[in-house]
Amino acid sequence: MEKTLQAYIDKLDSLRFKDMYDGDFFLTWDKTGDELDAVFAVADALRFLRERNISTKIFESGLGVSLFRDNSTRTRFSFASACNLLGLEVQDLDEGKSQVAHGETVRETANMISFMADVIGIRDDMYIGKGHTYQKEVAEAVAQGRRDGVLEQKPTLVNLQCDIDHPTQCMADMLHIIHEFGGVENLKGKKVAMTWAYSPSYGKPLSVPQGVIGLMTRFGMDVVLAHPEGYEVMPEVEEVARRNAAASGGAFAKTHSMAEAFQGADIVYPKSWAPFAAMEERTELYGRGDSEGIQALEKRLLAQNAQHKDWCCTEELMKTTRDGKALYLHCLPADINGVSCVDGEVEASVFDRYRTPLYKEASFKPYIIAAMIFLAKCRDPQAVLKALEAQGTKRQFAE
Amino acid sequence: MEKTLQAYIDKLDSLRFKDMYDGDFFLTWDKTGDELDAVFAVADALRFLRERNISTKIFESGLGVSLFRDNSTRTRFSFASACNLLGLEVQDLDEGKSQVAHGETVRETANMISFMADVIGIRDDMYIGKGHTYQKEVAEAVAQGRRDGVLEQKPTLVNLQCDIDHPTQCMADMLHIIHEFGGVENLKGKKVAMTWAYSPSYGKPLSVPQGVIGLMTRFGMDVVLAHPEGYEVMPEVEEVARRNAAASGGAFAKTHSMAEAFQGADIVYPKSWAPFAAMEERTELYGRGDSEGIQALEKRLLAQNAQHKDWCCTEELMKTTRDGKALYLHCLPADINGVSCVDGEVEASVFDRYRTPLYKEASFKPYIIAAMIFLAKCRDPQAVLKALEAQGTKRQFAE
Amino acid sequence: MEKTLQAYIDKLDSLRFKDMYDGDFFLTWDKTGDELDAVFAVADALRFLRERNISTKIFESGLGVSLFRDNSTRTRFSFASACNLLGLEVQDLDEGKSQVAHGETVRETANMISFMADVIGIRDDMYIGKGHTYQKEVAEAVAQGRRDGVLEQKPTLVNLQCDIDHPTQCMADMLHIIHEFGGVENLKGKKVAMTWAYSPSYGKPLSVPQGVIGLMTRFGMDVVLAHPEGYEVMPEVEEVARRNAAASGGAFAKTHSMAEAFQGADIVYPKSWAPFAAMEERTELYGRGDSEGIQALEKRLLAQNAQHKDWCCTEELMKTTRDGKALYLHCLPADINGVSCVDGEVEASVFDRYRTPLYKEASFKPYIIAAMIFLAKCRDPQAVLKALEAQGTKRQFAE
Question: I want to staple C117 with a disulfide (CB 3.0 to 4.6 A). Which of B370, C153, C155, C173 is the partner?
């Protein structure tokens, strides 16, 4: 692991990422491999500085607007932490879970909240076909506002989770893997099992499994997506994963057997999600305001879900992974057998053994978000990092 | 338009506004013309500095307390932006829509939230005869708290909308006009049509039309207030408008014809509001907790309202304005025909044509609020502006 | 009263409080007398600097996380003010009033919100036997997170009110007393009457009376706890009070007569609280989800409560105190006869006479909280205070 800031700067010097300046971050597969590496390098560099009590504020004032269309504690705090790290004050805009506020209203609201906004973080993962579209609308609205002279600056949009991808989560997962395996160069050929797991709450977003197969296939790894029949993810994202694997010299495969996915895996990510087709159906039902239809769908989903309680990350399954010691990942909170539910995604003893690594995995997220903002806001990120270190403002006054 | 900070400072040097120091901002007609001009000059100066990436922080720490007795996104963000611009952290106090919390409780709460507060922004526009009174109570409570040595500083009160006036909105509208017409000296004789317009939501506050006629009559303009019979505004404010017009060499007239108001107008402000008498009645009914009476009143108001769907800002009407090109104003959000409702305040094509100017109009509000605070907090605003420029702290770290 | 910062530094030089560094603040009786004196000295020193417009920021960035398990305006603002004073941005986590979120979840959530947190302030006073335990769990979780390398720093936990103690309130009350009596050296032998008083709301927490008898018995004062039969506080805390009194050369006595407690008192603190046994019963009923049982209990409590309307701080009672001029204390808001209720804790004319001192009492709280954080974060608090004064950064830009 690098011990000087210069190592991160050298890494950045070797990468091409100029297009990230003044840009947004929607989906990892919008970005080149160099651009993703730049995010990892800046995230590590910011953490390097903070661990040494050196200020990483690149803003003296300014707002970071968070827009959550779903309840959120972890993402809210990760975003707030990232903004604080860079000197931005968070201002929350809670729009509720409604599907309204698209079109005309989006354009207007986006501008009205952005007069002093340097970044807008959006979480909108509730409805298939909606979240990503909404984020694009907001980004276009404020870019237009900037061109029209309405806004003094173009706020950078950071996708804090949409219906398609969850880039800040999956990039944090990935940076955790890179650290655990001692560098991205050690990942070639490693087997990743992204598998469905049972949870009593049956309607979780697809953005994590989709984000994982869309991102982890880019590092030459052997990615297996496992789920019961009926729990397919978006076909477009599977296509992305296939293309990525081909380009990176890795592999992407699908199976309906959790055991097959775990067999010899270096990394396992067992997690519940809702079936894509059912989510599409739900979006339509909500669109029509058909509450009877929604109830019927939920009943059907619960019944379908209950058939797959055997999809659990057990000690037995863990033993079948590489040396019985695969790295267990989860975006948290997990549904733990006998702790948060009777039957869930993982056995308590497995979860317990990996608690510290899991918390570390989560700890990368604020830095990933901050790095995305940093790269969008700094024309010359290396120079800014150098200047921050040279300036050496103490984050905490120490005497 | 001025291109140096010195021009704004010169302007301030020509004005008398010493009484604004340590003061509050309740109603525009409490202030002299010079004082309003000072707000405009400081607002422009702060924007000048921010556009050049120069910090305008006059506080190194301190709180800006916002107190909303009604839901609000735009005002909340404008206030948060203004506070952030000056270095204050926003702390929200949501009291709900209740009418309680007057008297004893106000005095106490006002002090309890103000130990570190440099500004308190209040929006309380729900009940006729209440909002302004409440703001006065809060301002008196904290002034007393300061005198008694309870508070380390006297928080400045900024009226973010009351039952009588909406000074931050109307001052932003006015600064927009000044910029559009190339200076306040070009406004003499210009015709302003402040007119009622139909909206399916019939109970909007009167503070905007009242604020507009109370402010725009001070610049020698020819202000016409148009509304259907029964939609009168507060007589006291009409009286203010009449006196202003007489003093400024302008005019103030009333009509029940939207067409008459639009005829040859340079500026049009078509907007729905509730009838004053009905609002008074509603306040009384709420006071008595008479929910049946409130329902009956709402039904009556809806019926009355529905008779005036023809009060809409159409393309046809716009053609009758000066060269068919009057400046269209709105405080947003507008009720747009076929977009946010079937019948509303304005035709979609009219609104579309003015979207960018409307967003610019709104963009002045954070600067207006910041200027009000700045003038209350700086004993010598010109010297502070000069010092900010000389110091030249970058708002965003740029390398 | 001291007039130089050096006086506070000299005071600190005479005290032993090294163990406060990197510590938490749960209960005043966890702390030595020197440690409490250090909190008072730092609180006064921070106020001294702020009154002179000198920045007391010891953080350039970082979060102060507030976790309220009960509604709160005053405590929220006190905590926000303290954080702002030190340079931390507040991020609120509202968990609602539920009893859930203990155990596994606490450990995880505590870490997930703490990646950039320097302090966590918790108010959890609803259930006997729960609040303090919960705070301990959170503090242990983040200490473990720090040891495991998950967190970049250990957040300091500050008890903003639990089921046992309310240290920030009682320390503020105490600092107010110290100022009013001209120094801690003048308190020996002074009589304090901590007495129950009637309020129509019968379920108020016990943490104030418990905190008062647990703290005020440490200064050689003669503390009397008065309440009707059935309104006992926790026996463990009475035991603490007894031990304190013995050690400090003061006294601790109990009575069922308000008149006896007031007789010749120098300080009176008449305040409603719920009976401890009933609170224990309520906690159990909530634990079992027995809503019928809760209703029955509430009915019984109301009836019991109504028998003690004569427990009121009247003018007549005040006349029996030392020279008829005892210092009247309250944590606010008080239930005032004929103002906030028909029958309450205090007569309006008594409350009115003490309003300014009451507000001053409250004004110490932000400084007490800030001092607790300051002492946990600064290895050498005296040096930091000196450096802050030498540096002399203006809190408000003054020209």
Answer: C155
Query: A102-111, B84-93, B162-171, C234-243: which range is least confident on average?
Result: A102-111
Report A:311-340 residues touching B (Cβ under 8 A): none
Query: Among partner residues C51, C77, C89, which is closest to B113 by beta-carbon distance?
Result: C77
pLDDT value at residue A100 = 44
* Nearest residue in A to C106, CA atom: A333
Task: Look up the CATH number of domain B5-165+365-391.
Answer: 3.40.50.1370
As a whole number, mean pLDDT of residues A127-145 equals 93
The C-alpha atoms of residue B273 and residue B202 are separated, in whole angstroms, by 7
Residue B329 and residue B294 in contact, taking contact as beta carbons nearer than 8 Å = no
Asked whether the predicted pLDDT for residue B70 surpasses 80, the reply is: no
B149 touches chain C (CB under 8 A): yes
Which of B235, B211, B189, B191 is closest to B36 using CA atoms? B211
Q: What is the pLDDT of residues C339-354, one digit of tens each?
A: 989 999 999 999 999 9
Can you tell me the distance from the alpha carbon of C368 to that of C381, in angstroms, rounded to the nearest whole number? 15
Q: List all residues 6 or more positions away from C96 whose beta carbon is below 8 Å from its beta carbon.
A: C69
CATH 3.40.50.1370 is right for the domain spanning C167-362: yes
- Band (pLDDT 50/70/90 cuts) for residue A350 is very high
ipTM associated with this complex: 0.94
Helix (H) or strand (E) holding C107: helix C104-112
Given C57, C89, C150, which is nearest A89 (Cβ)?
A: C89
d(CA B250, CA B245): 5
Q: Where in chain A is the domain with CATH 3.40.50.1370?
A: 5-165+366-391, 170-362
| Cβ-count burial A42-69 (b if 16+ within 10 Å, e if not) | bbbbbbbbbeebbbbbbbbbbbbbbbbb
Cα dist from B350 to A115, B180, B221, B317, B334, whole Å: 24, 18, 24, 10, 12
**Mean pLDDT for chain A?**
94
pLDDT at B102 over 60: no
How many interchain CB pairs under 8 A, A with B? 99
In C, which residues are within 8 Å of A84 by CB distance? 61-63, 89, 116
Q: Average of pLDDT values for A378-391?
A: 97
Q: Supply the mean pLDDT for chain B.
A: 94
Predicted confidence (pLDDT) per residue in A72-83, tens digit: 788 899 999 999
Could you give the CA distance from residue A265 to residue A249 in angstroms, rounded to a whole number?
18
Q: Could you give the percent of chain A with pLDDT greater than 70?
A: 96
B295-305 pLDDT, tens digit per residue, is: 999 999 899 99
Query: How far is C243 from C239, CA to CA, in rounded Å?
Result: 6
A170-362 CATH choice from 3.50.50.60, 3.40.50.1370, 3.30.390.50, 3.40.50.720: 3.40.50.1370
Q: What is the pLDDT of residue A397?
A: 87
Do residue C104 and residue A336 have CB atoms under 8 angstroms apart? Answer: yes
* Helix (H) / strand (E) containing A67: strand A63-68
B90 contact residues in A (CB cutoff 8 A) = 89, 91
Pairing between β-strand C327-328 and β-strand C267-271 as defined by DSSP bridges: parallel
